[in-house]
Amino acid sequence: MITKKILLTLTLTTTMLLSTYAQEVITGTVSDYYEEIPGVSVLVSGTTVGTTTDYSGNYSIEAKKGDVLSFYYMGMEGIEITVGKYKIIDVKMYAEGEKKIWKKNNSQTYLKYHSNGKKECIGEIVKGKQNGVWKHYYMNGQLMLKLSYLKGKKDGNEEEYYRNGQMSSTGSYLQGKQNGKWKYYYENGKLHKIGNYADGKITGKWKYNYENEKLNIIKLWKEDKLMEIISCFDEKGNPLEIGTLANGDGTVKHYDKDGKLYRETHYLKGNIIKIKPIR
To answer: Which of 99, 106, 127, 145 could form a disulfide with 136 if both were Cys (CB 3.0 to 4.6 A apart)?
Structure first.
């Protein structure tokens, strides 16, 4: 009888130990504060067991409670996480040189540096999403991009700059989509093109200029589809033949700044169906 009790106790103890240290499938997603990261190496430390994240940043690996999962990706700071009671472990990685400054009310200042020690970008994270004004910089310290977010989506004004400090483009977003009037500039500061977006799509009349500020072409768009060429000029202001495009159907002629024809594009319902080079 005593022998049976001892065997029963040993059996229960062994079962409990096996249950405690049984292999389980651990899954999760690896990302930074912008997007999911594909190709991250995920290893069970001290073993040859490993995998990599897929295109969407997801991974799946067998491990047991107490194992240490190591996450590695070139240019990012390595992370080690001990497996506990949870089978889903999502990981947030930071680029090398980043600094994280926590604030109150679930907000965080995201601060990243270039390899030369100069600031690369700075902005606020609120409840895990980009919020407020964000600024990005070139390695020489020159402002590259200034934009606004609301709950992780671009919302508000955006300004982009060339390395020489000249503005490249300016406009606004509404709930993650370009909206309203946008202006684009050449690197010399002259206006390149101007027009409107509606719900993220090019719409209405757009004007395109040469670098000498002379008018190049005026196009009429409707929801990203080219409907008509209103007028076209060479760099000296001489009018050029515009083609047959009307209501999205027909041809458009393309010229260099001297007025030499080099291409003809065929459209159907506002979409390109054929491009014909002119020799």
So the answer is: 145
Distance CA 30, CA 38 (A): 8
Helices in the chain by DSSP H: which ranges?
2-20
Q: Is residue 145 part of a domain?
A: yes
Number of helices and strands in the chain (H, E) = 1, 22
**Domain shared by 85 and 195, yes or no:** no
In sequence order, what are the beta bridge partners of 253?
Answer: 264
Measured CA to CA, the distance from residue 124 to residue 121 in angstroms comes to 10
Residue 8 contacts by C-beta under 8 Å, 6 or more apart in sequence? Answer: none
Compute the mean pLDDT over every residue in the chain, rounded to the nearest whole number: 87
Task: Provide the whole-model pTM.
Answer: 0.65
The model's confidence at residue 10, banded by pLDDT at 50, 70 and 90, is very low
User: Given 66, 92, 118, which residue is the final one in a domain?
Assistant: 92
